[in-house]
Write a structure and sequence with these properties.
Length: 368
């Protein structure tokens, strides 16, 4: 870890241990920039302000906006709840405010949108009632997830699956949505879900320190530990869960750092580099034993299955796939995605095979 990363860990350690006597060595602006990339700015600003030496207005706007957004999302979630209940739509809220309530202040947990899961047979109907009754419009659509935005710019991620419809792990969530009076996951499934969801993100090249904070809080809740272990083992997530708990102890509770924890930390902080593009390359190559040329070809020409999720017309007209590779290329260069794509290509070309081997070792050790 470099000095800024070390200071981020020191601040989070102060937050979790309620010890605000810590000392940092980096410039507050550098800490602010990295905290933004890691989506933990509110909790960093809040903890710094608890330390008399580091009270600063750099984070004031962030904390104000986080508090405001929390209130707006809380009201919006209540509105969604009322609309869905009035229309006999079974649903469950996940992530976001469902986890924020465990933090010292709920607005400290960054939440980009409201995630809600409904049953598959009510998926389109749920969208329609939100469009009609809450003034949302649809920005993005997949068979199991769509993004809805209201006139004030607040997002709702509407799902009809907790993972993906064709994911074997979806079976662990069977019947969770039906007649769920509290519209929340129980503690066992909440722990399972944050591990499952974070492992998915890690496989995509990015995982946030926020996951470790979430895991720290949820792991302290009362639950059937035998049930949790069975679920995590059956889903192939038990080792990931145990290693993540160990990393929490290493980073925040002064336990000794071992090699796997060191690699885990390096991967975690490297995820702040262009949304984890360097990690993404290494994971992709490590998982499939691809050389650089094969990896870039796969990224330039994704499978039909992937392309059909991005361009729905291909579901009915598969023969248009070659044309839509050009459409996809145009979409990338005409939007802000070109920066990330360029970074990924550049990183793939300049990276060495040793980094891919290290990533393979990390993922084998985490069991994912």
């Amino acid at each position: 870890m470099n000095s800024v990363e070390l200071d981020i860990v020191t601040i989070l350690k102060g937050y979790l241990n309620k010890d605000y006597s810590f000392t940092i060595n980096s410039n507050l602006n550098d800490i602010y920039v990295l905290a933004n990339k890691l989506c933990i700015t509110p909790i960093i600003g809040y903890t710094l302000n608890k330390n008399d030496k580091y009270v600063s207005n750099i984070f004031d706007k962030v904390l104000f906006n986080a508090s405001l957004k929390h209130e707006v999302q809380k009201n919006l979630r209540k509105n969604i709840k009322d609309i869905f209940e009035d229309n006999d739509i079974d649903f469950v809220f996940i992530k976001g405010l469902s986890l924020a309530k465990y933090y010292d202040e709920p607005y400290l947990r960054y939440s980009g949108d409201i995630d809600v899961v409904v049953k598959k047979d009510k998926y389109i109907f749920a969208r329609d009632v939100l469009v009609e009754n809450a003034k949302f419009y649809m920005k993005f659509y997949l068979d199991d997830e769509m993004l809805l935005i209201n006139n004030n710019g607040y997002d709702v991620d509407l799902h009809c699956a907790f993972t993906r419809i064709d994911d074997a792990k979806e079976e662990f969530y069977k019947d969770v949505v039906s007649n769920n009076i509290n519209h929340e996951l129980d503690n066992e499934l909440l722990l399972f879900h944050i591990c499952n969801h974070s492992a998915k993100h890690m496989n995509a090249g990015y995982i946030s320190l926020q996951f470790l904070i979430d895991l720290y809080y949820v792991n302290k809740l009362e639950m059937d530990r035998d049930k949790v272990e069975r679920m995590l083992r059956d889903a192939g997530l038990w080792t990931f869960y145990e290693r993540s708990l160990k990393l929490i102890d290493v980073l925040f509770f002064n336990k000794e750092m071992d090699e796997i924890s060191r690699l885990y930390v390096e991967f975690l902080f490297n995820g702040s580099n262009v949304i984890g593009r360097s990690n993404k390359v290494r994971v992709g190559r490590a998982k499939n034993n691809d050389n650089k040329f094969i990896y870039l070809c796969k990224r330039a020409f994704p499978t039909y299955k992937y392309m059909s999720t991005q361009y729905r017309i291909l579901l009915k007209k598969k023969y248009l796939l070659p044309i839509y590779y050009f459409v996809r290329f145009y979409d990338i260069i005409s939007t802000n995605r070109i920066k990330a794509a360029s970074a990924e290509v550049k990183y793939c070309i300049t990276d060495n095979d040793e980094g891919t081997s290290i990533t393979r070792k990390l993922f084998n050790s985490l069991g994912i």
